[in-house]
Amino acid sequence: MLHPEIHGGTTLDENSFRSALRYIRPKADELTWQAILWQTDIFEAMRIVRQDHKPVLLWAMKGDPLGCT
């Protein structure tokens, strides 16, 4: 489903482009994950969580990090 201001058959002009851009750009509340202190070293992460008394999320996978397996 398309945004009400963006629908099939719309000619892309400056106004419709700006409307589409506003619609697809992430809002401030959709970027809060960027404030997380991500760690790539499990030992450093464990040191930090012990100090701050916070949980740790371990995300592990097998294969190419880009999913190109």
Task: Detail the topology: elements first, then pairings.
Blueprint: H1 14-24, H2 42-52
Task: Please explain how this structure is put together.
It is a single chain. The protein is mostly helical and 69 residues long. Helix content is 32%, strand content 0%. The protein has two helices and no strands. It has helices at residues 14-24, 42-52. The longest helix has 11 residues, at 14-24. The protein is elongated and about 55 Å long. The mean pLDDT is 84.
Total strand segments: 0
Mean pLDDT: 84
Q: Spans with pLDDT under 50 lasting ≥5 residues?
A: none
Number of helices: 2
Order of helices and strands: HH
What gyration radius follows from the Cα positions, in whole Å?
A: 20 Å
Shape: elongated
